[in-house]
Amino acid sequence: MIPTNNIGWEISSIGMALYIVQTGFFPVGVPGGSLNFDLVTATGPTGPIGTRGAQGIQGPAGAQGLQGISGAIGPANDPAQTPAAKSALALKDNLIDNGIDIYYTPSIRTFTLVTSGHYEVSYHTVATNAASVTLPVSVGVSLASNKIPIPGTTSMATIRQAHDVTTLSATTFVTVAAPPHSITLETENGNGMFTNTSVLICRLD
């Protein structure tokens, strides 16, 4: 409120500007156009952006990432083979051999996992009928762990005409708690002939 009992000045903010207002009477006119108001300051245009500050200090190092795959092996065999029922398929040409956690022994057609951990195992083969069987016949293979079939890895198909072909494949995961641990790819019966067979095993941790 503007006082009326003396002559003087007081500072008053009107809008965005600051004025000194003559007191002792009711000021006349409008700020900026009357002698009763002296402009002290007004909001001017925004100034230019200041210079960029100095870079802050580097933050702490992040946590160590997960360990990558430590080993893999992937032997294959192209020639045709006709194993007996529940016999392991032979693999000859080693397409990949990285690390020391897994090895393959051709003479016993067996993979050996020598380190505790988790492994991904997959296989692929092309099957047709063996020459001595009567059609139609079922052909199939599966993975075995320490000579015990691994559930969910059996792949089967029916051959209805001579020399028709089918692809058999599967992928599974194996946990090794007490190595050594053996893995084989075995036939379900003696009806099939198999070509282009491969197995890939990777340690995941």
Task: Note the main attributes of this structure.
mainly beta; 205 residues
Can you describe this structure?
- This protein has 205 residues and is mostly beta strands.
- It has no helices and 14 strands.
- It has strands at 8-14, 17-23, 37-41, 71-77, 93-98, 102-105, 110-113, 117-129, 137-145, 148-149, 155-159, 166-176, 181-187, 192-203.
- Strands 6, 7, 9, 10, 11 and 13 form a 6-stranded antiparallel beta sheet that branches. It has a 5-stranded antiparallel beta sheet with strand order 5-4-14-8-12, with no helix packed on it. A 3-stranded antiparallel beta sheet has the order 1-2-3, with no helix packed on it.
- β9 (137-145) and β10 (148-149) form a beta hairpin.
- Mean pLDDT is 82; it is low at 1-9.
Summarize the structure.
The chain has 205 residues and is mostly beta strands. The chain contains no helices and 14 strands.
Summarize the biggest pleated sheet. Answer: 6 strands, antiparallel
Shape: elongated
Helix vs. strand class: mainly beta
Discrete helix count: 0
Relative strand content: over 45%
